[in-house]
Amino acid sequence: QVQLVESGGGLVQAGGSLRLSCEASGRTFSNNVMGWFRQAPGKEREFVAAISFPDGATNYADSVKGRFTISRDNVKNTVYLQLNSLKSEDTAVYYCAAGSPSYYRDRGRESGYAYWGQGTQVTVSS
Prior knowledge:
By secondary structure, the protein is an all-beta fold. It has strands at residues 2-7, 10-13, 18-26, 33-39, 46-52, 58-60, 68-73, 78-83, 92-99, 115-116, 120-125. The protein is built from no helices and eleven strands. Strands 2, 4, 5, 6, 9, 10 and 11 form a seven-stranded mixed beta sheet that branches. Strands 1-3-8-7 form a four-stranded antiparallel beta sheet, with no helix packed on it. Strand 5 and strand 6 form a beta hairpin. It is globular.
């Protein structure tokens, strides 16, 4: 089992920044990809970003490219999501996920991840 705990969400004005953290514990070595998804009110959960181990390869949703950055600290078993230039449409609950997707395209799909955190709320005011 893997436990994921997100933190760092909050209320921020449009144009501002936040850094989300996801600390993993348990059988973390069995998962080679960590991802972030988000779910806005009334919408389906969508992919945001992912990072793989040990090569550190990243990929992003088009809507956040150039504004969000995913990174990881292997020693702390923590993955970060830096959110810059926030917009009102970034308001959502952000979820951390861990898994071992069989194909690259599965990095952007919920089905590619076996473990999920409880989510952290990000609210961007305009």
